[in-house]
Amino acid sequence: MRHSISEVIRYRGLIKQLAVRDLKLRYERSTLGFLWSLLNPLTMIAIYAFFFSVVVKMRVEHYPIFLVSALLPWNFVARGLLSVSLLPYQNGYLLNRAAFPAESLVFSGMIANLVDFCLEMTIFTLILVGFGMPLFPGVLALPLIMIALFTFTSGVALIFAVANIFYRDTQYVAGIIATAWLYLTPVFYPASLVPERFQFWYSLNPMVHLTSCFRKSLYDGALPDWTSLMITVLVSFGVLALGWTFFNKHKADFAELV
Amino acid sequence: MTAIALQGVTKRFRSYDRGHKWLRRELVEMVTGRRSKGDCWTVLHDIDLRIEAGEIVAIVGRNGSGKSTLLKLMAGILQPNAGRVTHQGVICALLDIGTGFHEDLTGRENVFVNGAILGLRENRLRQLLPEVEAFAELEGFMDTPLRYYSSGMRARLGFAVAMSANPDIFLIDEVLSVGDEGFRRKCSAKLDELVARGRTIVIVSHDLEAVQRLCARGVWLHEGTIVEDGPIAGVCARYVERFNVSEEAPLETAGGTT
Q: Given CB atoms, is B19 within the 8 Å cutoff of chain A?
């Protein structure tokens, strides 16, 4: 483990270059540039906001902001699960041609994912200010919550990256998992709506805590409960350690399999 | 000083049948981390090879004799099933021209991605850029997307980046025949210069004429074992005699071996 961490640090230049390549190809080479990356979530938000506040009549004040404060972190995880985890498989020819740590591909995807997330977050924060929502002190907790989100998603992406290389079917299974996971996470509804007798099982989902922290910080403008935040951070690092160990155990076979 | 040492190296590949038991076996192995021994074929049998620093060695043999696999083991892209591979110094494996090149990126952007894959740092690449541009004879084309390059221009760019990597050990797989006669001569001169500076070079090639010009030592690989290891002229002569291949027109087409 310590060895692979130092390897990844040694190859940080490669991780950066791959992330830059990814972002450039996506944004610089299309006419509307990175507007596309915002147009897509904005459309989804408009649809969800209309559906859940007008049709379903969710009784939540400022529903669009309530929704987006959890939807953005959810999208970050979904991209890790569905796209970043495919990168080692898609770049198999690189793994078969050059000797570099395979996790560089996952981390480069995570960096690009983080850049997208930060852009979305910046615009969201501007909207919050525009609506006169209180930013402080909630926003101060944001860096720590983002570290937890990043480590957790990296761990998930590493685990699914291994599975994607071993079986091509994984990406379809991941799609099903993503749909189920979205509804098992309080994105469209407040966590308090979940009946008491399911609360224990419900709270085993780390995304429940991650989205709750984001919502507390951005929607309520308040600091999250420190104990639960610390547990969330620890669990996230645990997931990363687990994913990375799993990845390391199998990465020697990647060059042969892709 | 020994640059690369292989001791008792055996490499097996597994055939990946997709029968009804495939998924179950894979799942069991993934959980236990153990690989079953069935359905393997041995590409390299118990190879002992020692290459001293400053040597320039050619590996010859027919398609499927295990040459590229041997090179990938030296580079650390593949791991041996038995035996040990050790090396001293920085290795650069040129198994492909322009690994990681992307059509939509400019020549300059591709230099940074490709260079990073070869293990070069960004600021070092920035320093080397004029040199790369001159060596590749691509002045004025560095800001053009790769899709407008001819295949010769791509190959020259890829080779120029690899040449600037300046590693201690250079592994080259069947990429010597790039560009026109003038560029090929320039590449040979560059390789000679590397040898003069005490670098170690291992070349896999079907171009017997070129390897006899460049190398002093030849290793003849046949069906995964070393048939002969000695001065290049003798090895090539007996190889030609055995398989009746003409030096000017080799029976096999270049590349395509794994």
A: no
